[in-house]
């Protein structure tokens, strides 16, 4: 993997490459996308592109890393909000995640394609999910002290719910052309939030 540039111009060029790569991967898919196409889209020579990324795997991993960090930031919720109004906190987190997924649905479709081919992307997908799950389970344990929900470990429950949200977004948005009935962002947020709340908080009430 090439080193991250340290100059302002270098950082700007790297970001221009990543923006171009998002468009090319979304348009062509992981298998068909070529470094040459990204270079053309970014307005660089192929030699210029390779100064920033060694190969297609390296480049797409950087694209995914940027999007994942954005996901993590927009889907966060604070412990106080989760304690006083868990439904609102869950809705806020799901709203951020789902809206961001919708914006990047083409790249997320390509990400799943890449994960079916390259072990590196399967590992990235797992680590992305684990990071979200660990953040939530840490907040949940901080509030309630116990590590289970109806006799099931909170880690297992949270991972199941994270997988539900992730797969729903993939089916409804990344594969939206295959759906007979389009699902709106509001519908997606509501149904996933109800699933999270019913499983985790129904009967518990606020922690404070």
Overall pLDDT confidence? 91
Low-confidence stretches: none
CATH fold type of the largest domain? Tetracycline Repressor, domain 2
Structural class category: mainly alpha
**Count of all domains:** 2
The whole-angstrom Rg is 19 Å
Number of strands: 2
Q: How many individual helices?
A: 10
Shape: elongated
Strand content: under 5%
Please describe what this structure looks like.
The N and C termini lie far apart (48 Å). This protein has 208 residues and is mainly α. The protein is elongated, with a radius of gyration of 19 Å. The chain has two domains: 8-54, Homeodomain-like (Arc Repressor Mutant, subunit A); 58-200, Tetracycline Repressor, domain 2, CATH 1.10.357. It has helices at 8-32, 35-42, 46-50, 56-74, 79-84, 86-103, 105-115, 119-144, 154-174, 185-200; strands spanning 148-149, 152-153. It is 75% helix and 2% strand.
Q: TL;DR of this structure?
A:
This protein is mainly α and 208 residues long. It is built from 10 helices and 2 strands; from the N terminus they run H-H-H-H-H-H-H-H-E-E-H-H. Strand 1 and strand 2 (152-153) form a beta hairpin.
């Amino acid at each position: 993997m090439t080193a991250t540039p340290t100059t302002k111009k270098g950082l700007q060029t790297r970001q221009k490459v990543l923006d171009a790569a998002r468009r090319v991967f979304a348009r062509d898919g992981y298998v068909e996308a070529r470094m040459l196409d990204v270079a053309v889209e970014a307005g660089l020579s192929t030699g210029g592109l390779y100064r920033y990324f060694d190969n297609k795997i390296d480049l797409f991993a950087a694209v995914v890393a940027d999007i994942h960090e954005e996901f993590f930031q927009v889907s966060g919720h604070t412990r106080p909000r989760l304690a006083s109004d868990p439904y609102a906190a869950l809705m806020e987190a799901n709203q951020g995640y789902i809206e961001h997924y919708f914006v990047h649905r083409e790249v997320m479709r390509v990400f799943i394609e890449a994960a079916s081919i390259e072990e590196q992307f399967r590992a990235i997908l797992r680590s992305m999910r684990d990071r979200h799950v660990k953040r939530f389970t840490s907040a949940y344990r901080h509030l309630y002290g116990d590590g289970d929900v109806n006799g099931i470990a909170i880690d297992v429950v949270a991972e199941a719910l994270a997988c539900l949200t992730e797969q729903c977004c993939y089916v409804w948005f990344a594969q939206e052309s295959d759906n007979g009935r389009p699902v709106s962002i509001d519908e997606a947020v509501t149904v996933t939030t109800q699933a999270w709340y019913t499983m985790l908080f129904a009967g518990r009430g606020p922690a404070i």
